[in-house]
Design brief:
single chain, about 725 residues, alpha/beta, Rossmann fold, 9-stranded mixed β-sheet, 6-stranded parallel β-sheet, 27 helices, binds adenosine-5'-triphosphate, binds magnesium ion
Length: about 725
């Protein structure tokens, strides 16, 4: 069989990996070095040269999109259908196994998958039945707890609670939730993996069958596997399976969701002997983009360490744009995108990346105004997010008590003891009398149709809305929005959710307030009548939102891609905008106090930069109205960690250009480089506080201040001139 076509267009190292003798292999390599390409060609090689059966191959990647692409590429190479091959995500494959072996897995044949929303609702119900106070123990926190336990492979009974009330409470919720799921044949996402891992452990025959079948296991994006995925893989491989793991320690960005970067390190031990292949030639980006990425990631400690190079020319300098505010930043991006399209480029080639979902709204608006088609990838558009819909429903209800959809949405959000039964009876009454649900509540109360308890809760709700409407009568739109998210309890309710999720929802609600301010301030939407009353302003705002979301739904055809940095993993685009390069935003403020998190943020920045093939813009705003407030953030430290001679400052319209960093804005406020011997991430020793890691610095010379995170006493600001720091590495 002629296998040369499989080896064409591979460099020597890649070929080495593709043709490695059958056994375990680890390909660690930087971004754009052809890892995914190697994986695909390896599969083709196994089938054609090693005569492996397509049925004996199991390939795992991170997203469904990546899996579909992988199949396509294999079929192209082999010119045969690969239907019998298992190519998918960990979740997809686990699901398939459980469907095939429901009996052995202890599930009913028609078991149901719970999506994230379903899961939350169920856990809420469990907690209500347990009489747990939702104010004190937000259900989302319980969801987070349960999922992380499952990701670590722990059943409720395995949770060590001790005398920690947090653990004890959540362990009990987990127990009850588990029982309910078992009774109802319900399986959440984390359960898919946990249960199929247990399937391996408990059904020796079945495991033996699959171990015989899958001789070849291949995993892409290996750095982001979590504990249970790793364990699953290890058991399946057993003594006979051959695993090729492909990954990049510098692109590990899911630590916050339980991914274990150590899995890369563990692999060489657990799967020994392992042939390790490193790839260093990058085929994606220009020299300048690559140099920037290399220099940035070099700041991280504890790396496997690798340097990328390219045969490609240096290419353009990396452009830095400093907007005077976030609207200006967004306008700049839309303008440059338009320029790209006018120059014959496709909108598809353009990616706008951001750290946090709340940033997307202003960017979306700028694209809409410029009439550039865009798609939000791997995320929900701003006005379609749950918390935003909730807030809008309150606003709608304040305007129109008889809006039933709004009523239904928020009558018990946040929870106020108005249960499904009550809502059902209100709905029934409204239907039979042909009145609104609001009206039905009033009549039901007047006629004594509810129990006293229910009547009092419903009365409270009606009064809340009436009061909110009365109080906000004179307010400007953004004040009204702010008052609304606070007084309704939504802000409290959503921000109590644990982890990134809660933070994101809180930020989005704050962002809604900004949207309202801009709406009235003429910045986003042209006003037709500046003298309108605020009440009709609210109405106009709500209508505008509804119209917008209709428009946006219909978008199809080639569009610019907008997504968070996290969802950009593995993808590549000719033109990339990395936006919001500001301290507090990126790196995110949540990460400032934890050195480990800063490194994860830096890896995220590395992922962002290395998505770019030809052209890269780094943008930031001097002021930003992000969370309902104007913030004045310093430019991101990441801007300064890139060698300044690779950067070039640009102005709107591209008119003025000068080298960045000479008299650029960042240099003025952040004279990091002037502190001799101190750099971000460096480990130092202080006579009194002990060892720590430099987080950031401010000012210059003797007066400079440095923030250091000490292992024993936490983060402290010190004067550089007096601290007498000893550098440790
Ligand atoms: P990431 O870390 O971002 O996932 P990766 O290491 O998986 O990147 P690929 O996506 O496989 O990299 O490859 C990056 C780009 O380089 C792709 O467009 C790919 O087709 C191209 N490429 C890889 N190897 C070669 C080669 N030997 N010759 C030509 N092009 C190549
Ligand atoms: Mg890849």
């Amino acid at each position: 069989m002629d296998v040369t076509h499989i080896l064409e267009n591979l460099n020597e190292r890649q070929r080495e990996a593709v043709t490695a003798p059958v056994g375990n292999a680890l390909v660690v390599a930087g971004a754009g070095s052809g890892k995914t390409r190697v994986l695909v060609h390896r599969i083709a090689w196994l089938i054609e040269a090693e005569k492996a059966s397509p049925q004996g191959i199991l390939a795992v990647t991170f997203t469904n999109k990546a899996a579909a692409e992988m199949r396509m590429r294999i079929e192209e190479l082999l010119r045969i259908s690969v239907r019998s091959m298992w190519v998918g995500t960990f979740h997809g494959i686990a699901h398939r196994l459980l469907r095939m072996h429901w009996q052995e897995a202890g599930l009913p044949q028609n078991f149901q998958i719970l999506d994230a929303d379903d899961q939350l609702r169920l856990i809420k119900r469990v907690m209500r039945a347990m009489d747990i106070d939702e104010q004190k123990w937000p259900p989302r926190q319980a969801v987070w707890f349960i999922n992380s336990q499952k990701d670590e492979g722990r059943r409720a009974r395995d949770v060590a609670a001790g005398d920690d009330l947090f653990q004890i409470t959540h362990k009990r919720v987990y127990e009850n939730y588990e029982e309910l799921c078992n009774q109802g044949g319900l399986v959440d996402f984390a359960e898919l993996l946990l249960r199929s891992h247990e399937l391996w452990l408990q059904q020796a025959d079945l495991l033996a069958h699959y171990q015989r079948r899958f001789q070849h296991l291949l995993v892409d994006e290996f750095q982001d596997t979590n504990t249970i995925q790793y364990a699953w893989l290890r058991v399946l491989a057993g003594q006979t399976g051959h695993v090729m793991a492909v990954g990049d320690d510098d692109q590990s960005i899911y630590g916050w969701r339980g991914a274990r970067i150590e899995n890369i390190h563990r692999f060489s031990e657990d799967f020994a002997p392992v042939q390790v292949v490193r790839l260093e030639q990058n085929y994606r980006s220009t020299g300048n983009i690559l140099s920037a990425a290399n220099a940035l990631i070099d700041r991280n400690t504890d790396r496997l360490g690798k340097e990328l190079w390219t045969e490609d020319g240096e290419g353009d300098l990396i452009r830095v744009y400093s907007g005077y505010n976030d609207l200006d930043e967004a306008r700049f991006i839309a303008e440059r995108t338009q320029e790209w399209i006018d120059g014959g480029g496709s909108p598809e080639d353009v990616a706008v990346l951001y750290r946090s979902n709340a940033q997307s709204r202003v960017l979306e608006e700028a694209m809409l105004r410029a009439q550039i088609p865009y798609r939000i990838y791997g995320g929900v558009r701003f006005f379609e997010r749950v918390e935003i819909k909730n807030a809008l429903a309150y606003m709608r209800l304040m305007l129109d008590r008889h809006s039933d959809p709004a009523f239904e949405r928020v009558v018990n959000t946040p929870t106020r003891g108005i249960g499904d039964k009550t809502v059902e009876s209100v709905r029934g009454l409204a239907r039979s009398r042909q009145i609104s649900m609001w009206q039905a509540c009033k009549e039901g109360i007047a006629e004594g149709l509810f129990t006293t308890r229910v009547a009092s809760k419903v009365t409270d709700f009606l009064a809340l809305i009436d009061d909110m409407a009365a109080t906000t009568g004179e307010m400007a739109l953004h004040e009204l929005a702010d008052f609304c998210v606070q007084t309704s309890g939504l802000m409290d309710f959503h921000s109590k959710e644990r982890g990134e999720r809660g933070l994101a929802r809180k930020e989005n609600l704050e962002e809604l307030v900004s949207a309202c301010r801009q709406f009235s301030g003429e910045l986003i939407f042209p006003l037709t009548d500046a003298d309108r009353a605020e009440a009709s302003m609210l109405e106009e705002f709500l209508d505008q939102v509804a119209l917008d979301s209709g428009d946006r739904q219909a978008e199809s055809g080639p569009s610019a891609q907008m997504m968070t940095l996290h969802s950009a993993k593995g993808l590549e685009f000719p033109l990339v905008f990395l936006t919001g390069m500001e301290e507090g935003l990126f790196p995110h403020r949540m990460s400032a106090e934890e050195p480990g998190r800063i490194e994860e943020e830096r890896r995220l920045c590395y992922v962002g930069i290395t998505r770019a093939m030809k052209s890269l813009y780094l943008t930031y705003a001097e002021t930003r109205r992000l969370h309902g407030n104007d913030t004045y953030n310093r430019p991101s430290r990441f801007l300064l960690e890139v060698p300044q001679d690779l950067l070039q400052e640009v102005r709107m319209g591209g008119a003025v250009q000068r080298p960045y960093g000479k008299d650029g804005a960042a240099g003025d406020v952040w004279k990091d480089s002037e502190l001799p011997g101190v750099r971000m991430g460096q480990r130092v020793r202080h006579a009194k506080f002990g060892e720590g890691v430099v987080l950031q610095s401010e000012g210059s010379g003797e007066r400079a201040r440095i923030q250091i995170n000490f292992a024993d006493v936490g983060a402290k600001w010190l004067m550089a001139g007096y601290a007498n720091l000893q550098a440790l590495d």
